[in-house]
Amino acid sequence: MRIFDPHIHMTSRTTDDYAAMAAHGVQALVEPAFWLGQPRTSVGSFVDYFDALIGWEPFRASQFGIRHHCTIALNPKEANDPRCREVLGVLPRYLAKDGVVAVGEVGYDSMTPEEDEVFAAQLELAKRFELPVLVHTPHRDKAAGTTRTLDVVRESGVPAERVVVDHLNEVTVKEVADSGCWMGFSIYPDTKMDPDRMVVILRQFGTERVLVNSAADWGKSDPLRTYATGRAMLAAGFTEDDVDQVLWRNPVAFYGQSGRLDLSDARTGDTFAGNSILRGARS
Ligand SMILES: [Zn+2]
Hints:
283 residues, alpha/beta, binds zinc ion, UCP005295
């Protein structure tokens, strides 16, 4: 099983996690810029964090043969802190860099006017840099947050096929499926989606336009939930090819739209799994 985790926060994880992921087939991942738990008080903290996402963390991943990419944005929660707003001014510098394969995580946390403004500004940046967008949906009030998210995406003019709406569940999946956006699912150890619930959704909605991630971070989470979902799919009668589509080809297709996905072997520089640098691939 080859796995591309399209949403995982490796900054918060250990080398044991990297080793276990590599042993279970994780060959590539995307680390979205997000909230670190401790509120940041100045733009400098973001700059250092973004630099780590394009420098230090890819180096750490490469020690385990894993290709690391990231997404860059001002996250929804800190969009509400006036001390963090200045970050919007440094984003263009990062969105131009190799290894940055989308704008994200953007979207809503508490659905405030400040979040509206920052979300819209970052959708504009996605258009300007022709990048896909990773949209977080709120954990509270998820249904209303998802509806509003899709409205804002529609108004922005960013094409639906360039947007993944993440952290979906049984309640919110239908609306996103109908919108033409990609459907993201975060599989957690004991809250939100689990592998068996994911399998039920895949039966109902199919394997197209679906991204499954572990969203592992500093909270209780498990970087092997992608692998567990692949096992659950096989146990439920999905084929190896179905699993490969969901856990590898779909994330490659989605983030490949950036033209910046580098899937050459992290250790040798050779191509692996039939993919090299997908530069200019925008299917
Ligand atoms: Zn996240």
